[in-house]
Amino acid sequence: MPCVFVFGTLKEGFPNFERNQGVRIPGVFSTTVSYPLLLVGERYSPWLLLDAGEGHPVLGQVFSVDDDALAEMDALERITEADGYRRVEMDVVNLDNGLTQRVWVYAKPAHSVKGADVRMTLQGDYLLEHAALYVSRRKV
Protein backbone atom coordinates (compact mmCIF):
# COMPACT_ATOMS: atom_id res chain seq x y z
CA MET A 1 0.00 0.00 0.00
CA PRO A 2 1.18 3.53 -0.64
CA CYS A 3 2.27 5.80 2.19
CA VAL A 4 1.53 9.50 2.65
CA PHE A 5 3.67 11.94 4.64
CA VAL A 6 1.48 14.54 6.38
CA PHE A 7 2.96 17.68 7.89
CA GLY A 8 -0.10 19.84 8.60
CA THR A 9 -3.81 19.56 9.28
CA LEU A 10 -3.97 15.83 8.40
CA LYS A 11 -1.66 14.88 11.27
CA GLU A 12 -3.08 12.92 14.19
CA GLY A 13 -4.68 15.38 16.63
CA PHE A 14 -4.92 18.20 14.07
CA PRO A 15 -7.96 19.89 12.42
CA ASN A 16 -8.44 17.61 9.38
CA PHE A 17 -7.36 14.34 10.95
CA GLU A 18 -10.91 12.99 10.64
CA ARG A 19 -10.37 13.05 6.85
CA ASN A 20 -7.24 10.89 7.21
CA GLN A 21 -8.32 7.25 6.99
CA GLY A 22 -4.77 5.87 6.87
CA VAL A 23 -2.97 3.71 9.40
CA ARG A 24 -0.16 5.58 11.13
CA ILE A 25 3.34 4.18 10.88
CA PRO A 26 5.15 4.64 14.21
CA GLY A 27 7.77 7.34 14.43
CA VAL A 28 8.49 10.96 13.71
CA PHE A 29 9.47 11.56 10.10
CA SER A 30 11.41 14.32 8.39
CA THR A 31 11.94 15.23 4.78
CA THR A 32 15.49 14.38 3.72
CA VAL A 33 15.71 17.77 1.98
CA SER A 34 14.82 21.22 3.31
CA TYR A 35 11.66 22.94 2.06
CA PRO A 36 9.87 26.17 2.99
CA LEU A 37 6.88 25.55 5.29
CA LEU A 38 4.44 28.46 5.26
CA LEU A 39 1.09 29.51 6.69
CA VAL A 40 -0.81 31.17 3.88
CA GLY A 41 -3.93 33.31 3.55
CA GLU A 42 -6.75 34.17 5.89
CA ARG A 43 -7.24 30.44 6.54
CA TYR A 44 -3.59 30.02 7.68
CA SER A 45 -3.26 26.95 5.46
CA PRO A 46 0.04 25.10 5.84
CA TRP A 47 2.00 24.91 2.59
CA LEU A 48 5.09 22.84 1.95
CA LEU A 49 6.60 24.69 -0.99
CA LEU A 50 8.44 22.60 -3.58
CA ASP A 51 11.58 24.71 -3.43
CA ALA A 52 14.13 22.06 -2.48
CA GLY A 53 17.11 23.25 -0.47
CA GLU A 54 15.30 26.27 0.97
CA GLY A 55 13.77 26.44 4.46
CA HIS A 56 14.19 23.51 6.85
CA PRO A 57 13.62 19.76 6.89
CA VAL A 58 9.88 19.36 7.47
CA LEU A 59 8.62 17.13 10.29
CA GLY A 60 5.49 15.01 10.04
CA GLN A 61 3.78 11.65 10.26
CA VAL A 62 3.48 8.83 7.73
CA PHE A 63 0.29 6.87 7.07
CA SER A 64 -0.23 3.73 5.04
CA VAL A 65 -3.32 4.29 2.90
CA ASP A 66 -5.58 2.27 0.65
CA ASP A 67 -7.09 3.65 -2.56
CA ASP A 68 -10.18 5.04 -0.78
CA ALA A 69 -8.12 6.84 1.87
CA LEU A 70 -5.83 8.28 -0.80
CA ALA A 71 -8.85 9.47 -2.81
CA GLU A 72 -10.25 11.19 0.31
CA MET A 73 -6.95 12.99 0.88
CA ASP A 74 -6.74 13.94 -2.81
CA ALA A 75 -10.22 15.48 -2.57
CA LEU A 76 -9.37 17.42 0.60
CA GLU A 77 -6.15 18.72 -0.95
CA ARG A 78 -7.99 19.59 -4.18
CA ILE A 79 -5.30 18.10 -6.42
CA THR A 80 -7.39 18.59 -9.58
CA GLU A 81 -7.91 22.31 -8.92
CA ALA A 82 -5.51 24.89 -10.37
CA ASP A 83 -4.85 26.35 -6.90
CA GLY A 84 -4.83 22.99 -5.11
CA TYR A 85 -1.92 20.98 -3.80
CA ARG A 86 0.06 18.57 -5.94
CA ARG A 87 0.64 14.99 -4.80
CA VAL A 88 4.32 14.29 -5.38
CA GLU A 89 6.80 11.67 -4.26
CA MET A 90 9.71 12.44 -1.97
CA ASP A 91 11.98 10.72 0.52
CA VAL A 92 11.46 10.98 4.27
CA VAL A 93 13.49 9.50 7.09
CA ASN A 94 12.08 7.94 10.26
CA LEU A 95 13.98 9.82 12.98
CA ASP A 96 13.41 6.96 15.42
CA ASN A 97 15.18 4.26 13.37
CA GLY A 98 16.99 6.11 10.58
CA LEU A 99 15.16 4.30 7.77
CA THR A 100 14.36 6.27 4.64
CA GLN A 101 11.29 5.63 2.52
CA ARG A 102 9.62 7.07 -0.58
CA VAL A 103 6.18 8.52 0.16
CA TRP A 104 3.49 10.74 -1.30
CA VAL A 105 3.21 14.29 0.01
CA TYR A 106 0.83 17.15 -0.77
CA ALA A 107 2.78 20.27 -1.64
CA LYS A 108 2.56 23.48 -3.61
CA PRO A 109 4.69 24.30 -6.66
CA ALA A 110 7.33 26.94 -5.94
CA HIS A 111 5.65 29.48 -8.25
CA SER A 112 2.47 29.32 -6.11
CA VAL A 113 4.01 31.64 -3.53
CA LYS A 114 4.11 34.55 -5.99
CA GLY A 115 1.32 36.87 -4.92
CA ALA A 116 0.31 34.58 -2.03
CA ASP A 117 -0.57 36.10 1.33
CA VAL A 118 2.18 34.46 3.41
CA ARG A 119 1.23 34.99 7.05
CA MET A 120 4.08 33.04 8.67
CA THR A 121 7.22 31.08 7.79
CA LEU A 122 7.67 28.03 10.03
CA GLN A 123 10.88 26.34 11.10
CA GLY A 124 9.90 22.96 9.63
CA ASP A 125 7.28 21.95 12.18
CA TYR A 126 3.52 22.64 12.08
CA LEU A 127 2.47 22.70 15.74
CA LEU A 128 -0.88 22.82 17.55
CA GLU A 129 -0.33 26.55 18.11
CA HIS A 130 -0.28 26.97 14.31
CA ALA A 131 -3.31 24.70 13.90
CA ALA A 132 -5.22 26.97 16.30
CA LEU A 133 -4.99 29.69 13.61
CA TYR A 134 -6.32 27.41 10.86
CA VAL A 135 -9.79 28.03 9.43
CA SER A 136 -11.47 25.15 7.61
CA ARG A 137 -12.59 25.79 4.05
CA ARG A 138 -16.07 24.77 5.26
CA LYS A 139 -16.09 27.77 7.64
CA VAL A 140 -14.97 30.40 5.13
Automatic annotation (TrEMBL):
<dbReference type="InterPro" id="IPR039126">
    <property type="entry name" value="GGACT"/>
</dbReference>
<protein>
    <recommendedName>
        <fullName>Gamma-glutamylcyclotransferase family protein</fullName>
    </recommendedName>
</protein>
<dbReference type="InterPro" id="IPR036568">
    <property type="entry name" value="GGCT-like_sf"/>
</dbReference>
<feature type="domain" description="Gamma-glutamylcyclotransferase AIG2-like">
    <location>
        <begin position="4"/>
        <end position="126"/>
    </location>
</feature>
<dbReference type="Pfam" id="PF06094">
    <property type="entry name" value="GGACT"/>
</dbReference>
<dbReference type="InterPro" id="IPR013024">
    <property type="entry name" value="GGCT-like"/>
</dbReference>
<comment type="similarity">
    <text>Belongs to the gamma-glutamylcyclotransferase family.</text>
</comment>
<dbReference type="InterPro" id="IPR009288">
    <property type="entry name" value="AIG2-like_dom"/>
</dbReference>
